[in-house]
Design a protein that fits this description.
The chain is an all-alpha fold. It contains twelve helices and two strands, in the order ααααααββαααααα. The protein has a single domain, classed as Fido-like domain (Fic-like fold). The longest helix is centred in the C-terminal third of the chain and has 31 residues, at 272-302.
């Protein structure tokens, strides 16, 4: 899928390729199921008053799931405490989870208020129980009207800075001028990721392809998969396909990392069958992600934190 940045998004070869993928029969049959699941999530009882802490919790659980899919096991409660108490990570796994969280937290600024008349008063830190540190309030950032198109290039650069800031010397490699620091992503591949996000094609196919693209082209696979997850969510959120900001597309990968890697390997073959196999897996992960959002909503109603996995 070659980049052609000089062409308009509507007329680019990337748009044409993505539009063709979206017309595949199996994919077009799965997508309406995702739409229905997202609609049910949008009107979940737990999100009527608790949508802000739910979004903050989704950032935490997404990070835990992204890390788990790569073999880095960090309990959600541990990550919550790292954030609430501003504690430095002690292990590589904790750095992976924290780096993934920093990427996911950037997406909060893309989200418009879900129920403006019912602004949540509870701090996301309430999930930690009485006496928990209050600095988790930084998860629920100030809301602003989102009117300008999402700057995906700026987001990707921010993800890179977050990863380097989290991993310190571990990510201090020697980079060529055309490589994005932290992700070991060539300038051409970084631009292609942005072009995919901005293409004229259904949001779900853009999101699925950019996730796989970053996961398989970034030299640092941990950073690439974390950035792929975050950028794909950014596409869905900014396109209003997933309005809540609470869905958890990475839950499926966390529960079955082997199947996730197999789906990425199918994509990496570059064949039509392989790419479609990846997109089938991705759409099913969106279905499961909506179910995960429902679990967040129920956990807030019950004031019982969910670990993001069970």
């Amino acid at each position: 899928m070659p980049s052609n940045s000089s062409a308009s998004p509507e007329n680019s070869p990337i748009s044409a390729s993505l539009q063709a993928l979206a017309r595949a029969e199996q994919l077009s049959e799965l997508w309406p199921q995702v739409v229905d699941a997202n609609r049910e999530l949008r009107f979940s009882t737990g999100l009527r008053r608790h949508w802000e802490p739910a979004r903050a919790e989704a950032a935490v659980l997404s990070a835990v799931q992204v890390a788990r899919a790569q073999g880095a096991i960090v309990p959600a409660m541990r990550l919550r405490h790292l954030l609430a108490d501003d504690v430095q990570p002690e292990t590589v796994a904790e750095r992976v989870a924290l780096g993934a969280w920093r990427m996911q937290a950037q997406l909060l600024e893309l989200m418009t208020p879900l129920n403006p008349g019912r602004m949540a008063r509870a701090d996301a830190g309430s999930l930690l129980g009485p006496g928990a540190g209050g600095s988790l309030s930084g998860l629920s950032r100030k809301r602003k009207a989102v009117t300008a198109p999402t700057n995906f290039a700026q987001l990707l650069s921010g993800f890179s800075r977050d990863w380097v800031a989290t991993h310190g010397d571990q990510s201090a490699f020697e980079f060529r001028q055309d490589v994005v620091p932290g992700l070991e992503l060539s300038g051409d591949n970084a631009q292609l990721a942005v072009d995919i996000c901005e293409a004229k094609a259904p949001a779900w196919v853009r999101a699925g392809i950019v996730h796989a693209h970053l996961a398989v082209t970034a030299g640092n696979s941990g950073a690439g998969r974390a950035a792929g997850s975050a950028l794909s969510r950014a596409v869905l959120i900014s396109s209003r396909v997933e309005q809540t900001g609470v869905s958890l597309p990475d839950w499926a990968a966390a529960l079955d990392p082997v199947r996730y890697r197999s789906a990425l390997e199918a994509y990496e073959t570059g064949t039509a069958r392989g790419v479609q196999a990846w997109l089938v897996w991705y759409l099913r992960s969106l279905l499961q992600g909506a179910e995960g959002g429902q679990k967040i909503a129920r956990s807030l109603l019950a004031s019982v934190p969910w670990d993001g996995l069970s």
